[in-house]
Amino acid sequence: MNVNDVEQDGWYTVYCGHGRFTLPVRYQDLVLIGQGAYGIVVRATDTTTGKYVAIKKILRPFETDIHAKRTYRELKLLMYLNHPDAQVVQLYNVFTPEQNVNEFRTIYLVLNFVDRDLNKLLLQRVPLTETLIQLIICSLLRGLKV
């Protein structure tokens, strides 16, 4: 992780993995979690709360109509599943560092950091206990609760 731009107006720019992140100064100590075709995810420390958060930088969110629809769909789904008691995913914040609409090219999603991944758990082929299955189903249902 390299800090390239000096903190200015509450924002700073840092490189993590193959991505350049321009973030509010409250998010520090970035660690790459993963990257794919649609985004880069890092873990950061929220210095306001002292807790870890996951920050997803959506790559090319408005490059084409398909990209824009995918970005909109992801944001709407996260907003719909945003239940504080669910252990699914919680959307804390959405922001862009751009100052005007003509420069609007970047979207960052700030999410709760979960150190476990259901997909990785299932790929391990480890038998799940009935209690764990109940917890997963309960969390998913809480996330869907309106």
UniProtKB/TrEMBL annotation:
GO terms for molecular function: ATP binding; MAP kinase activity. Keywords: ATP-binding, Kinase, Nucleotide-binding, Phosphoprotein, Serine/threonine-protein kinase, Transferase. Its EC number is 2.7.11.24. Residues 27-146 form the Protein kinase domain. It holds the Pfam family Pkinase. Its cofactor is Mg(2+). InterPro entries: Kinase-like_dom_sf, MAPK, Prot_kinase_dom, Protein_kinase_ATP_BS. ATP binds at residue 57. This is mitogen-activated protein kinase. It comes from Rotaria sordida.
